[in-house]
Amino acid sequence: MRDLNTQATIEMLNQIMEFELAGVVRYTHCSLMVTGPNRIPIVDFFKAQAAESLLHAQEAGEIITGLEGHPSQRIAPIEENNRHGVRDLLEESLNHEQKALDMYKQLLDVVENASVYLEEFARTKIGQEELHNLEIKKMLRDFS
User: 0.90 exceeded by the pTM?
Assistant: First the structure.
């Protein structure tokens, strides 16, 4: 085991927290913009994604304070293409989920072989984000 780079870990967790909080806003917005015959299940999907993003942000914040850091009060920039068809919203979501996956992989790089708990946290989130990527890709298949 190596020593944990606490500062780098806190910085990465703050980036994750900001990104996950942006996800709450993104997915809430998406849930409000869905129209059409399949609205209800897709709205429910986006609302669940928003709730999960909030949970992930809270979990990251708890770890930050556990490491004696200070959680950010910012949110990451939210890109929007101003197209609100279901396919567009899902494609934006897939892009967001891929960025989240990349961030959790970066966290794993920072904590690997330094903290079993943080390593497991990062691996669990990587698995969840990979699953979200697969789910969204399956949802997009109807549009191809």
Answer: yes
